[in-house]
Amino acid sequence: MEVHAVRKLFVILCLLAAAGCGPNNEYSAVAFGDSNTRGANFPLRDYPENEKWVNLLNLSQQGKVNVYNAGIGGETTEDGRKRFKQDVLDRNPKTVFIMFGTNDAVVLQNGKPRVSKARFKSNLLYFIDEIEKKGGQPVLITCLPIIEGNGQDKLYYSRYERIYYDAGRGARNWHNSYNDIVRSIASSEDVRLIDHWENMVKEAGGSTDSDLMASGLIDPSGNHMTPKGARILYESISESKILK
């Protein structure tokens, strides 16, 4: 076989392996979560694909780390549990980043969240236990601080009724109460934590709507990251030295 043909075959095999089409479909790491893991808003907002946080990790760790993006927009931990074996465990990752909560915490018109706090906790513990059984390292990530808005501006309250969140002092505080479960589990189970909420609030200089809007970390939906917000998460993971 000619040298040019050999090189071409090598490149094709490398691309197949990176896409998850290799013989054992193994990945160094899996990012498991919802739209903020997938970066589902990036094409809608015309943001550069290579600035998604998972893609930044892959670009910066070429030849060392291969992170599979198992994020699906709109999903809760309950949805993720149904595909957990296929999308995560079967890929034999050394590290699994788990980032859920934004959709779990949505309060429906019956006054109940899509996923109760008790079930949210149970699902996270299940993910952690199964990952560790296979010798992997689970890493928990808190959700971003949402921008509530006034109900007329296409932000969070334009899609979800403010009245359902009054008991929890607003949707942002309610969402952070799910993050508190993540933080508590990380502590009790001795699991690594990336507190993305705290990192974004620190970068924004506060947690009010005005602080978050001015920061440029969150897109006009109020609950998705911009490339700037995604870079905060990427840098936090890089600085943590979780991926070696």
Question: Please, could you describe this protein's structure?
Answer:
The protein is of the alpha/beta class. It is built from ten helices and five strands. The chain has helices at residues 3-18, 35-38, 41-45, 53-60, 77-87, 117-133, 171-188, 196-204, 209-215, 227-240; strands at 29-33, 67-71, 95-99, 137-141, 192-194. It has a five-stranded parallel beta sheet, with helices on both faces. The relative contact order is 0.14. Mean pLDDT is 90; it is low at 1-25.
In short:
With 244 residues, the protein is an alpha/beta fold.
Sequence of strands across the biggest β-sheet: 2-1-3-4-5
The 3D shape can be described as globular
Which residues sit in consecutive blocks of at least 5 with pLDDT less than 50? 1-25
Helical element count? Answer: 10
Q: Please compute the radius of gyration using only Cα atoms.
A: 19 Å
Spell the H/E element sequence: HEHHHEHEHEHEHHH
The structure class reads alpha/beta
Number of strands: 5
| Beta-strand residue percentage | 5-15%
Helix content: 40-55%
Task: Please state the average pLDDT score.
Answer: 90
For the record, give the distance between the C-alpha atoms at the N and C termini, rounded to a whole number: 37 Å
Largest sheet: number of strands, sense, barrel closure:
5 strands, parallel
